[in-house]
Amino acid sequence: MRVVRFPAIALLSLSSQLLIGCVGMHFLQYRSSPMASPTICLTFDDGPNGEATERVLEVLRQHHLQATFFLLGKNVEREPLLARRIAEEGHIVGNHSYGHETFLAFYSVQRIKRNLERTNRLITESTGVTPRYFRPPNGLMTARLQRVCDELGLTPVGVHLFVHDSFTTNASVIAQRVLRRIRGGSYILVLHDGFGTSAAPARTVVADALERLIPTLQQRGYRWVGLDELIREPALAAISSTTNR
Ligand SMILES: [Zn+2]
Fold first, then answer.
1. Which residue of 32, 138, 185, 230 is surrounded by the most CB atoms within 10 Å?
2. How many structural domains are present in the chain?
3. What spacing in Å lies between the alpha carbon of 138 and ligand 1's midpoint?
4. Domain-located, residue 46
5. Catalytic site residue 208?
6. Active-site residue (options: 26, 45, 96, 165)
7. pTM for the predicted model, two decimal places
8. Does some domain include residue 20?
């Protein structure tokens, strides 16, 4: 999957721009093509997180949908049984770092590697599955983070659609933001069933939003696609290479 490297220079202050230019940072964010078949790939970040994750699992089960959960090692330590349940219900479990370290991408190679290996180990111990996908905290990638991913056999996965759902507890606002942004094409959507490493019961709102989104998107003709299928399918993989969001 080709990655669109948004120029971080447009997003940050002048001093930050110089720093970013020096370290080669980019945001792992894709663009969606209106030409591709209309599909949605559901991903959830920052779990496992108690009732919020359980509610999301229930909604997915009711609709027979598979999603990918990018788990934090620290949260897996707190809730190993819930991590196991995610995998047992047929979902993909990915690595989202140990503690959602904001500057992980700028750590030394050895320190990044320790972080990702520790998280992989925790996920494998609790679920029996070794992660194959990695989503960087806050979407920040650098060449050295990519290098560690390559060494560990992890494919970095970004997003097409990020709606800042972590900062609202209003399900209809989340659903509206998603529906407003989707205009044909194929998307990897991220929602957050957790909030970093905190126990965050209010994230059950994501399950409520999902209950509204699923029937509406189905009415609009969207097909649900798992991450494995998306990565395998050249026509879908190509969605990251064209047009704007
Ligand atoms: Zn996250």
1. 32
2. 1
3. 6
4. yes
5. no
6. 45
7. 0.86
8. no
